[in-house]
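anyone else get weird line breaks when pasting these?? whatever heres mine. first is seq + tokens for prot A
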Amino acid sequence: MIFPLEKLVEFNDNIYEITVAASRRAYQLAKIDDEEVRENYGKVVCVAARQLFNKTVNYRIEEKK
């Protein structure tokens, strides 16, 4: 699997938000030793980005109090 560049080009929302979300999701995937990551030769960032762009995993911004 490669990084989903076509999805990145088509992305019209805040690129900073999805970058942070992908980084945090990649960290989660690395910690749990996910099967999908193993199938993709340990490429956690690519798996995380694909999950976010395909809306397999959603994210939200929480307001600080």
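and prot B, same format (seq, then tokens)
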Amino acid sequence: MADSNPVIDIESLSKTFGTRRGTSHLAIADISLKVGDGEFVSILGPSGCGKSTLLYIVGGFEAPSTGAVLVDGKPVAGPGPDRGPVFQEFALFPWKTVLGNVMYGLLEQGVDRGQATDRARELLAMVHLSAYGNFYPKELSGGMKQRVAIARTLAYRPKILLMDEPFGALDAHTRTRLQNDLLDIWERDRKTVMFVTHSVEEAVFLSDRVAVMTRSPGRIKEIIPIDLPRPRKRAELLVNRRYQDYVVEIERLMELPPEEAQAS
């Protein structure tokens, strides 16, 4: 549960976009959410409900129409090194090696090349890519590219990870492996994580809390605390009745209209 001094404090947030037809589209409406230090919170909801929009506003890539986002008590006015984005599109530099991609942000910050190299190699070992430092992105699988993207973001030590369906384009086996890797990294560093996903199972497996959003315009329908032991082992959770109950409860909640969900 978020503490009284949240790392991320989203206050009555709404976002309206203009359309090509000259009309306006309300993407998210009156969202309030507090995320505590070291907490893993997933944002779950149907396509088009504004999950990514919410994440982009927290990241400083979009400005809210109304409301505010505070990080460590300060209003978000743009992107910053305290918030590290990891998106579904890998966005790696194709002309740089894996090692060069991970080092890039550090060098831009003025870190000594030797220190940047050491830090990048340390992170490649963490994401099980030590042997691929001299490879180029085109030579990697989708899962390996996403590991590089995660390592690149972790390199400059952001306090917060903002993850927008980072495993959504991967096959089931690779997705499972990267979920396990992400939890291992989170257990080691305990960064604050906001994680957007379509998958109920993924949200329950990873999270301390799951915020379920309505269809567009996206509002928070309900926030579900996930009371499951950590560190989490997939094989144990799959036979855990409480895990199964969370999945069923959230699946049901996502199918209900907002007014029925509030009454249930």
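btw re prot B: The mean pLDDT is 90. The first helix runs from residue 51 to 59.
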